[in-house]
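FAQ: What does the model actually see?

It sees only this:
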Amino acid sequence: MTEALTERLAAIVGASQVSTDPDVLGGRSVDYTGRYRGRAAVLVRPGSAEEVAAVLTACRDAGVSVTVQGGRTSLVAGTVPEHDDVLLSTERLREIGEVDTVERRVQVGAGVTLAEVQRAATAAGLVFGVDLAARDSATVGGMASTNAGGLRTVCYGNMGEQVLGLDVVLPDGSVVHRHSQVRSDNTGYDLASLFVGAEGTLGVITGLDLRLHPSPRQRVTAICGYADLDALIATARLFRDMEGIAALELIDARASALTAEHAGVAAPVEGAWQLLIELAGETDLTDRLAEALSEAELCGEPAVGVDGGAQQRLWQVREAVADVLGVYGPPLKFDVSLPLSSISAFAAESAELIAEHAPDAIPVLFGHVGEGNLHLNIVRCTLTGDREHALYTAMMALIARHDGNVSSEHGVGTRKRDYVSMSRTDADIAAMRAVKAAFDPTGYLNPAVLFG
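And it is asked to produce this:
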């Protein structure tokens, strides 16, 4: 990093928006989990798409790598720099347009948080289709870059299904505005979809046109307890394609024990496994819920919430999990997508694998069971270096043996780049590399992510 480049960046965005402070850079170079650290030379915070374009051009001309950062909630070290990079933060891209209640859409800057989009939608009587526990920190630009899923995916789909248009700055500094006012637009390549899930390797998303949805009038929420995971999976299979399904979340009782002890949020049902179900629609769906659960193999009666307060208390059981996972230090995290038929065997075999590598660790499994998208967290995991790598590699192999995908809603980042071949063929990877080379021939943009 040269002083000349730092001065050029300051000339573009203003001196107050550039920092070389070691403490600032150190705080920005650590993964959200706290397990992975990198190194950076300078932080730059552009305030417009034009400034982003100028910053990228300056860095490319200087031959310096750039790591893009949004809310920095990545769980796979997706925003951790490895090459004394320039950190390009999108946090100042914060404009929120007026909600179009007729077409049900809103244009926002990439640095707007999920919670802010949700509040804007709610104020207009609408719903945004993605929800995450990190809603107060996660930015919609980062969510699009990783094609984030979350708590409502079973109803509305992933982040990509909410994106109607994008503003993207390409690695050569050109700006693409891909928007359309029509609902069906088949004019040429679907460029917006190319950047969704690309994890910032093809360009920097600066603005988004987001789809909103009608707000359902009625909701009913339940938590059911199960002694047997296969019985829970059978219920999940029944509900996931049911009309009105709004959420379907698996909770490991070991997670509930942690939330009860450390967050004061206890599960209202017994059983080794719990299933949170929410139905939503224009009419009361309580009878439909009861009928669907009538044949389920439950541990006692389900806990049901019809009014908002009761529903919120039930949701706390699921959402409190994220708050307590770090109580014994940074957990080792796995984001995995599995066929429903493989979940029970994977749960048992992964627990055995963890016991073999880290006998004192606690495996905690939870997630979006409707899509088979689960989060395995190894709590009280003190492994580092080669021992951690050995467990991580063994777990990736186990996922592949169960016909799973080594990455689901969190992306590949830098943590999983060595395992992409377990879920993608050589031809797939070659095609992705060809796209990357076409957009970014020198490979300076997010160089550590996806391919490494």
